[in-house]
Amino acid sequence: MVTTRAAVLRDRSGDFRIEEISVADELRPDEVRVRIVASGLCHTDLLVRDQVLPPALPAVLGHEGSGIVEAVGVAVATCAPGDRVVLAPLSCGRCRNCQSAHPMHCVYWGPLNLRGRRSDGSTVYRGADGEELNGHFFGQSSFSGQVVVPQRSVVKVRDDLDLTLAGPLGCGLQAGAGAVLNVLAPRPGASIAVFGAGAVGLAGIMAARIAGCDPVYAVDLHPGRLDLALELGATHVVDAAEDDIAGQLVRATGGGVDFALDAVGLPQTARSAVDALTMAGAAAIAGSAGSGKDVSLGLTQLMGRSVHGVLEGDTVPALFIPQLMDLHAAGRFPFEKLVRTYDFDDIAAAVKDSESGETVKPILLH
Ligand SMILES: [Zn+2]
Ligand SMILES: [Zn+2]
Fold it and tell me: CATH: 3.40.50.1390, 3.90.180.10, 3.40.50.1100, 3.30.1490.480. Which one for 2-170+334-365?
């Protein structure tokens, strides 16, 4: 048993409270114990806080962790104590989608990442009075100072990358960049519109620039985020408060954009992403505001177009995250511009600034 500090969520829509917890340190053969150095805060953590998504409470959330390997199980071959690592969502490795190099579309993605338990129903996390806490969130629960993760979730970090920056590569950044580079795969010179200039959308905009897209439209409500979008590769910005955004994009491009990324996940943004497409265009829907949200699409508008729902950029994290680190080192994926760091004790401020749009990507320093 190791003791550590964690942000524990006990009440629906309540505060993350810093508590002393214990973490079982007997590792199974394929497990790794990591001392978390930093963790991004993602909107999915807030959807669970509001219980739009599982796991049930009390729980330890957080799923953009980076840290240092402290111990490994006997069958672990991909990392060793002392390694600097970033943690990615879990996948089973055995289903047909995992076997065909689509682990982020694993058949068991939901139970593996959102159940709050290992697959046998156990949890390594316990509160101060010994009660079990749900955890194992996205294979990790990085709002704990110590985590136990399967080796499939562990990706080594380049020596020259600041470890405190790396966590968001495991969720928001790979989600946006992967949706563009892996799923839409635009050719140079293609037009693209990105709805939502948060972490996912801005990663998509950086990826669109890497792919050579031009023009790149960024759509958002927040002027500061639109300025950042321009800095990161957008060629045009559109105020999301204006009327008929899709119609504006169709007129500006003489028939519609080749590609669209919905990084918001609301019915109206998904609809706009599809309505903005030209014939043979493709849209990626990379977010969801939660189950029970439906979108209606015009059947005529769908003719000749395609729509892809994308989870975590449809990446193979062990391959794609190192590619993003290389692009960052080359100055082509400058995601440090999205980030603001907070002391772990200031998690409430990080939540507030994330919700107001003041900070694109908060990172908590443990
Ligand atoms: Zn996330
Ligand atoms: Zn699988």
Answer: 3.90.180.10
